[in-house]
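Supplementary Note 3. Input sequence used for the single-chain structure prediction.
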Amino acid sequence: MATGVPASVDEVVELLGAGRYVADRGLATAIFLSLKLGRPLFLEGEAGVGKTEVAKVLAERLGRRLIRLQCYEGLDVASAVYEWNYAQQMLEIRLAEAAGVKDRGSLEKSVFSERFLIARPLLQALEPDVNGPPVLLIDELDRTDEPFEAYLLELLSDFQVTIPELGTMTATRRPMVFLTSNDTRDLSEALRRRCLYLHLDYPAQARERAILLARVPGLSEDLALQIARVVRAVRELDLKKRPSISEALDWARSLVLLGMETVDPATAGDTLHVLLKYEADIEKARRELLGLAPEPGVPSRPHVDSFRQPDGRS
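The predicted structure, written as discrete structure tokens, is reproduced below.
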């Protein structure tokens, strides 16, 4: 496990590779610059292309705490930043009243102290940590609304949050910040200005093959290549949801469990439900890619290019 921030782009590639994350040069460069410049890294792209995994693997390999804020519609400050422990505050007030405390100002200052503050992910990321600055993952930010996005601007520019009753809470050491978006809505220019940006697409065939080999025990190089070819061909179809890397990994694991050494049309047709999540997409892949007739028992010719062996044999 590494103890310090990588000193070069090559070291980033090696660091992620040690966590079985196969990064291309563009991603490794963006991460390196983000770490060196102390700027948040905004990763945008389709669901399932490895955006979230980057932060998870980086935290693991650096030995840092991972703090994840999973975004959703209606996310507010109380869930993301902080809230007051109202039950303990009321108990403190009642005990003070029973003890005859008359100074309301002193009592108010007491109950609105850090002792009664419940830190949520964004505030936790600013707190000191013995293992070094944590990795803060703000995941699927596009699911939130614009007011919450605007609230983040202070955190992303100055690494601080303002609590009206206490004042400004500032990080002693800047956390490593990653933001992800599935591009379901446009995020503001103000937010983008505060971050380094990278769009992540589905991996090229060679990289996907490397990912499969790194993540699926028992997978042969030939089978990994065939799976990568078929998955790439499936993604080129007009589908409701194209298969993600995680679904490609699940499919590869399934084929290994079935003892398959090659991807044949019949087995592919029987296991497409692992790769695709909608019946219409499965039927389209069976018909247009695999060349399998929808009616059981009706022979049809498979799509030759998708099932060509690595040495050129079909």
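Confidence is low (pLDDT under 50) at residues 297-304, 308-314. Residues 205-307 form one domain.
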